Amino acid sequence: MKVGDNMTDEELLLLENQVCFPTYAVANKILRRYQPLLKELNLTYTQYITMMVMWEKERINEKDLVEALYLKANTLTDLLKNLKAKGYIQIEKDKNDKRNIIITLTEEGKDLKKKAISVPKTLEAEHWLTDEEFDQYKKLLHKLLAGAWGK
User: Fold this and answer.
1) 61, 103 in Cβ contact below 8 A?
2) What is the pLDDT of residues 37-80, one digit of tens each?
3) One domain for residues 50 and 24
4) 87 and 72 housed in the same domain
């Protein structure tokens, strides 16, 4: 049923009829589960997802990283400084365009990937969905990200 179809004004505001609340609550539970695993890697969740992009790309400009993570550039600034201070990335201005910032994975950052593989392996069995449901859930989330609620 779509929001508003055959619902009274009172029903529209019931928590159980919202898509935002279970999304928020599940996201919080997932993030809380990640915290102890990421603490062992000395990473926050946002640093972890940034490193995931870096492990995939190894070299990326800041604009593309912002887009990949659905973050604002100002949110990424301190995060990148912290990852640089940990030795995981290098940050430099593009020689051809000084406004363009290039982020490059360091050897230490590459080595961290070997340790980080334990995170998804640990969490893989904890989602309480069948493999088919889990795949469908991920597909629906990506569809929402790509849609009107995207960026």
Assistant:
1) yes
2) 999 999 999 999 999 999 999 999 999 999 999 898 899 999 99
3) no
4) yes
